[in-house]
Amino acid sequence: MGLHTFIEAILGMNKKIIDKEAPKYTSRLIVRLTPQLHKEIAEYAALCGLTTSAYARKRLEGKYPKQRLTDKEMEALNSLSDARGDIQKLFGFLKGRPLTERENILRSEIFMKRWRTSAEVILNRMIEIEKYLTQ
To answer: Is 21 exposed, middle or buried (0-12, 13-18, 19+ CB in 10 A)?
Structure first.
């Protein structure tokens, strides 16, 4: 079996699983709403990135659809993720070293200056994100 055939088989299997799990909505329920209530439901659905029907179905199932992140929140989340990655790189770098070498690295004035500079950049960015989100 070639790689292409294998990938198609996997994708086909995933599609079958998704098709089996997705319920078939065949029955209709017609509901009368006030214009105000209809507007509110449409607004909540839009915040969640759902159609009004999908939103109403989820609420009738007792679920509470989550709001999508705004562009502002998404940008902040991406920045935090980048900062987390930088911190993980440093820990990964140190973790792979023997204890004596780690001690020597952490005692190094050059390393500690670079560490402090990098940490200040990350912390300043986190402060900016916090201000940006609370504006």
So the answer is: exposed
